[in-house]
Design brief:
By secondary structure, the protein is mainly alpha-helical. The protein has one helix spanning 35-67; strands spanning 2-3, 10-11. Strands 1-2 form a two-stranded antiparallel ribbon.
């Protein structure tokens, strides 16, 4: 059974009997990324996350140095 997101009615046809809303067609699954692309994304994350942490620590350290 399908559930209408607009009016909340359970129905078994392609069109909601209460509001007449047509169910959108299921989208096709996306293509999976190649191994090279996955590796590139992991390397980017491995560089970006530590860089962000170091930047935040540097800003905090600079803040405390300027206060004292």
């Amino acid at each position: 059974m399908k559930y209408c997101k607009k009016c909340g009615v359970l129905y078994s046809t392609d069109v909601c009997p209460k509001c007449g809303m047509i169910e959108p067609q299921a989208s096709q699954p996306e293509e999976t990324a190649s191994a090279k692309e996955v590796r590139r994304r992991w390397i980017a994350l491995g560089i970006a996350i530590p860089s962000a942490i170091l930047l935040i620590m540097g800003v905090i350290k600079l803040y405390f140095v300027l206060i004292h």
